[in-house]
Amino acid sequence: MQEHAKSISVCLLTALFTGFVTQLMSIGGFIRWSAVKGNDYSSEFWNLVISSWTEDGLTTFLIWSVVSLVVYFTLHRLTKERKTAEKVIVRLSIILAVLYGIFMYPNFRDYL
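The structure assignment produced for this chain is given below.
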C-alpha cells in the first residue's frame, strides 16, 4: 500500500478541494436565492459554510475520492505499471480539480 501513497493522497486532496469549492458554491447560490426572497444572509456566509458542510461538500468529496481511486486502481491494473497509472491519475485529478474550481469561482467570489 506504501507504493500507492502518492496517488491516494493526490486523489483525496483533490477530492477535498472540490468538496470545499462545491460547498462554497452551494452556499453562495443559497445566499443569492434568499436575497431575491428578501432575506440577507451575506454576513453569515462562513457560518453557513461551516454548519452545512455535510450536505454538499462532504457528498462531493466522497464521490470524487471514490471515483478517482477506482480510476487509479483500474489504470494500475490495466497498465501493469504503477508509474504510468500514477502519472495519469495525478495529472487528470489536478487538471480536473483546477478546472472545476475556475468554473465554479464566479458563483461565490462575492462572499470571499
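Interim note for the steering committee: Helices lie at 5-36, 45-51, 57-79, 82-104. The longest helix spans residues 5-36.
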